[in-house]
Amino acid sequence: MTDHGSGSEGPGDIPEVRERWLLVAVAGVLSFVAMLDMNIVNVAVADISAGLGVPAGTAQWAVLGYQLPVVALLLPAGRRLDGADTRTALLLATGGFALCSALAAVSPWMSWLVAARIAQGACGAVLFVLMPVLAVRSVRPELRGRAMSVPATLGPLGAVTGPAVGGLLLDHLGWRWVFLVKVPFCLLVVLVVAALVPRGGTAGARVPAPRPADRTSTAGRRALADAVLVAAGVALLLLSLTLAADTSAWLALAPAAAVPLWWWLRGPGGRPVAGVLRAAGLLRTHGAVLALAAGFAAAHYVIALHLRRDEGVSATATGLAVLAFPLGMGVAGPLGGRLADRYGSRPVALTGAALTAVGLLLLVPLGDGWSPAGVAWRLAVAGFGMGLNGGPVQALVMGAAPPDRAATVGSTVQLARSLGFTLGPALATAAWGLTGPDGGARAALAVAATAAALAVPLLALPSRRPASPSGETTDATPAAPR
Which residue in 423, 418, 422, 386 sits closest to 128, CA to CA? Predict the structure, then answer.
């Protein structure tokens, strides 16, 4: 099974050893934990508000304090981690993530909790960048589809199961355990990484020469400026979409989000990132990742809310209906990876995106009196498509990444996915509020289905680019039967 003499490893690759699939599993666990943290705290906001004696709006910063640093720091972290020591970065980020979780759990005041969550978000940004890099460099190129399907499937599963896990912990142990539940997973990852990842293994294919102190200081200031600009743009966009549910005039704030984002894109922080994606032919693929994630997140939000609030369905029946999506995804994830390794990443990713769009489109015609069973089978179709898409599209992106820019490309695809998960519910909320209570759910589902459908042409029209030094092209080449 292991070819020690293949000679296909680059300077930044993790050597081919029997335990390489354990490192892929580590990437999957980190993906699950990091995405779990995006949603698990949502259900605990009311309990945090009561436990720390703060208003609900203030307690919401237990969620935003994590999400905003993740989004803001992904791109700066990706650029700084190109050529960095993968082992050291993983150990520091995972250990810091666990420590911040513990600090959040013992928070005596809200300010303490927010500070811990902001620091945890910074560690989470590093983990999001390194997860695909670790997975793709732990196996030979012909096994990338299967390897990338692990974090690409477990990450969204973490996002979906977060509220359910959080609810169980709140009912039986209290809100502080919402933060502590992730600590054992992080400690296990630290032990595995310390034992298996070699010292000096890099996230890119080259180790940069040491920078003079003045250049390091300048790079630090630029990274901070990049983070502020990206965070400001995303925050303005989310604020306009969520407030538009009450007053449509807030939509006028949305164009203001383009100002800091454009400023970043045209500056020294954004130009190299856009250049890498353009040269690698990955701009459309990133758009597809964002669109599919937004459609999935919007549909999940709308269905759970509508079944409980408008249809009066029990929490148990609602949970079982929504569970059909991750079940379909879990079944299709490993299959998608194997098909991608055999037939190529792009056709499998395209098929998955089309199935997801079909499943969500089938939800739109549902009239009054939704049944949990009717919702469940449609969600299963969408989830199966999402599972087929996740691993192949991740392999497509990382396979096209320049060897010395793997961390940068890893950060951009994670940013696209995170923005989709964040923007989806906001778009659904805006559509629901603007349409009114009668047709709000259907309008919000139409937005979700449209977003998912956009991924199909984006994946069907690949950009042309030169072959990489290793001879690989944007599309994964079918591997020989094994």
Answer: 418
